[in-house]
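quick q for whoever's on today - can somebody do inverse folding on this one?? i tried earlier but teh output was garbage lol. C-alpha cells:
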C-alpha cells in the first residue's frame, strides 16, 4: 500500500519524464512486492501450495518468481532512466 500511496505523491512532480518514470517505478515495485509476498507466504506454509493461487504447483512458483524478478528489474531500469535524465 505504501508503494501505491507513493504513486499519488509522484503525480505532483512538474517534469513529465520524472513524473512518469517515478510513477511507473512505484507500480513496478508494488507488483514486485505482491509476487514476492505470495512466494514468501507459500514458502513459509502460511499459504498452502494447494490453494487457488498456487494450483499449478512448483511450475507456478517458478513462474511467479520469474515475474517478481521481472517487475524488480523494470523498477530498477526506470529508476536508472530517471537518474540519467536528471543528470543531463
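ok took a stab at it. sequence:
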Amino acid at each position: 500500500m505504501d508503494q501505491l500511496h507513493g504513486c499519488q505523491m509522484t503525480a505532483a512532480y512538474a517534469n513529465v519524464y520524472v513524473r512518469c518514470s517515478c510513477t511507473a517505478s512505484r507500480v513496478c515495485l508494488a507488483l514486485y512486492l505482491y509476487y514476492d509476498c505470495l512466494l514468501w507466504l507459500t514458502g513459509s506454509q502460511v499459504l498452502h501450495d494447494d490453494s487457488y493461487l498456487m494450483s499449478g504447483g512448483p511450475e507456478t512458483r517458478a513462474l511467479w518468481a520469474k515475474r517478481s524478478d521481472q517487475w524488480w528489474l523494470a523498477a530498477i531500469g526506470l529508476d536508472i532512466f530517471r537518474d540519467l535524465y536528471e543528470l543531463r
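fwiw The chain has one domain: 2-87. also The helical segments are 2-10, 16-43, 58-87. so keep that in mind when u check it
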